[in-house]
From TrEMBL:
Keywords: Disulfide bond, Glycoprotein, Golgi apparatus, Lectin, Membrane, Metal-binding, Signal, Transmembrane, Transmembrane helix. The chain crosses the membrane at residues 296-318. GO terms for molecular function: D-mannose binding; metal ion binding. The keyword Disulfide bond applies. Residues 1-25 form the signal peptide. GO terms for cellular component: COPII-coated ER to Golgi transport vesicle; endoplasmic reticulum membrane; endoplasmic reticulum-Golgi intermediate compartment; Golgi membrane. It is a single-pass type I membrane protein; Single-pass membrane protein. PANTHER family: RE50040P, VESICULAR MANNOSE-BINDING LECTIN. This is L-type lectin-like domain-containing protein. It comes from the Eukaryota. Residues 31-254 form the L-type lectin-like domain.
């Protein structure tokens, strides 16, 4: 039998403590993920219910994914988080898989919601029209026959205080805040979307190219969302179809350590956004700072002076020639 030297024993003990504290730190970072707003495998709790979630329509729960719609016509499914989200700043990350047998014809798409009311069956990808809240729409089918300024699949953001109608015939283009094209369908690898709401800035990013990194799709400032709304996901198929599968939903509460604690009550405000995207051609803002304005002024001034100088020199030259020709003739 060997008796360990006390020093070596101490070293092992230190290592063991280090290991424990390391693991603990890992746990602490995971604590930011709010279990009551997340949906991760295994989905079922002890019974047949999914804790904190309710589902409706064609939604099917399997051990590895939640299928909102199968690749069949005229399906409508949704899953809603029953606990109101009271965080002010958050990041909602969804792993999804949209796939089907259609090569060129498929639809309709799915929506990630942050909405006032849950389980409201309706025409907007399986939720009610005139909703209140935020919709991140992953539209795979182009309903619009006229000229589009984008391709499908297309991701867009819509904010509604209950007064706006989502117009499928125009793929919601006249009510969207911003959007981006995203080829997220029928991919062999994992596809993710992140919806981040931080200090009234909405940022939507995707990870759909198997790079394990976020790529920004859209960013909108001046977005006001109330607290206490609900996370939801819904999907529809029509004449065209797809499997709309949700693999996981992770809600991270963002703590902003350097922010003074705001006492502003956001529980009663209506959803709103300062900036709406123009209906058709998007005209980008001309980036003009004070400096470039001054520069432009000087360039114009210099141009003006040169022009005047050129004219003066020209006149003088002309007069000289006139004088000379006069001398020649008289
Ligand atoms: C609701 O939204 C619409 C469209 O953005 C806006 O015109 C209207 O003023 C809003 N209503 C309220 C009560 O804020
Ligand atoms: Ca569409």
């Amino acid at each position: 039998m060997t008796i360990m030297h006390p020093k070596i024993c101490g070293l092992f003990l230190t290592l063991a403590i280090l290991k424990i504290s390391y693991v603990k730190t890992q746990w602490n970072t995971k604590d930011f993920m709010k279990r009551e707003h997340s949906l991760i495998k295994p989905y079922y709790g002890s019974g047949i219910d999914i804790p904190f979630w309710q589902f409706m329509g064609s939604t099917m729960i399997t051990p590895n994914y939640i299928r909102l719609t199968a690749d069949l016509q005229s399906k409508r499914g949704a899953i809603w988080n029953t606990i109101p989200l009271n965080a002010r700043n958050w990041d909602l990350q969804v792993q999804f898989k949209v796939h089907g047998k259609g090569k060129n014809l498929f639809g309709d798409g799915f929506v990630v919601w942050y909405a006032k009311e849950v389980l409201q069956d309706g025409p907007v990808f399986g939720n009610k029209d005139f909703f209140q809240g935020l919709a991140i729409i992953l539209d795979t089918y182009s309903n619009h026959n006229g000229p589009h300024n984008h391709q499908h699949p297309y991701i867009s953001a819509m904010i509604n205080n209950g007064s706006l109608h989502y117009d499928h015939d125009r793929d919601g283009t006249h009510t969207q805040l911003a959007g981006c094209e995203a080829k997220f369908r029928n991919l062999d690898y994992d596809t993710h979307i992140s919806i981040k709401y931080e200090k009234d800035v909405l940022t939507v990013s995707t990870d759909i190219v198997n790079k394990a990194a976020w790529k920004q799709c859209l960013r909108v400032e001046g977005v006001i969302l109330p607290t206490g709304y609900h996370i939801g996901l819904s999907a529809t198929t029509g004449d065209l179809s797809d499997n709309h599968d949700i693999i996981s939903v992770r809600l991270f509460e963002l703590e902003l350590p350097n922010e003074p604690i705001s006492n502003e009550d956001r529980s009663k405000v209506l959803p709103s956004a300062k900036f709406f995207e123009p209906e058709r051609e998007r005209v980008e803002d001309v980036k003009s700072s004070g400096w470039s304005g001054v520069k432009l002024f000087f360039i114009m001034l210099l141009g003006g002076i040169s022009l005047v100088a050129a004219v003066v020199v020209g006149i003088m030259f002309y007069q000289k020639r006139e004088e000379r020709s006069k001398k020649r003739f008289y």
